[in-house]
Design goal:
Blueprint (H helix, E strand, L loop, with lengths): L10 H17 L12 H12 L7 H6 L2 E3 L6 E12 L5 E11 L3 E3 L1 H12 L2 E2 L1 H16 L3 E10 H4 L10 E8 L4 H12 L4
Parallel strand pairs: 2-5
Antiparallel strand pairs: 1-4, 2-3, 3-6, 6-7
The chain binds zinc ion (ZN).
Zinc ion binds next to loops.
Length: 198
């Protein structure tokens, strides 16, 4: 996946965030003037804008941009899509993998676009459950397929670094629609994504 920088940061947003992060550092007992921290508010301001750039992006447009007429109705599966997001409760990362499938109904889209749709919704403040259904709904609305399946497996740093410290727990969420509501189709998908999972 491409992790390119944002072309243009909004200076007013960067400045406002920098001021707040500088205050936050002081409140946390740090000296924002010391050498290692001097550029931290700016770096953090830009990192946060990068990690929430999905608000400005339109998942359906991305799918539309590579939508092709194709007369196939076999299940299309894209598995192990890397995923990095921020939990909206703690603004700490959660990360893992998304597995996505759809059954075309006259139209297909570029496989890389499916991965980009994951980024569009992941680069916002999220809960894993909503992220899962948003991806499903974008594919459903744009491609009008016979079915869509999305499974996300992720680890949440808010759980691993604080509170309960369940270090190895993986949260799995899923969203199925159409043909995938049938047990048979769903189990075919599950078989495909677990085939050589490590
Ligand atoms: Zn959290």
């Amino acid at each position: 996946m491409a992790y390119t920088k944002i072309d243009q940061y909004d200076d007013a947003v960067t400045d406002g965030l920098m001021l707040n992060y500088k205050n936050a550092l002081t409140l946390l007992g740090e000296d924002p003037g010391r050498e290692g921290l001097q550029k931290t508010p700016e770096r953090l301001a830009k990192a946060m804008q990068f990690m929430t750039q999905g608000y400005e992006q339109d998942a359906c447009k991305i799918l539309e941009s590579a939508k092709f007429k194709e007369d196939i109705s076999e299940m299309v599966v894209v598995k192990d899509i890397e995923l990095y997001s921020l939990c909206e409760h703690h603004i700490l990362p959660f990360f893992g993998k998304a597995h996505i499938a759809y059954i075309p109904n006259g139209y297909i889209t570029g496989l890389s676009k499916i991965a980009r749709v994951v980024d569009v919704f992941a680069r916002r403040l999220q809960v894993q459950e909503r992220l899962t259904t948003q991806i499903r709904d974008a594919i459903k609305e744009t491609l009008n397929p016979l079915g869509v399946a999305v499974v996300i497996e992720a680890q949440h740093l808010c759980m691993m670094m604080r509170g309960v410290q369940k270090q190895n727990s993986v949260t799995t969420t899923s969203a199925f629609w159409g043909e995938f509501e049938k047990a048979e189709t769903r189990s075919e998908f599950t078989k495909l994504i677990t085939a050589d999972l490590h």
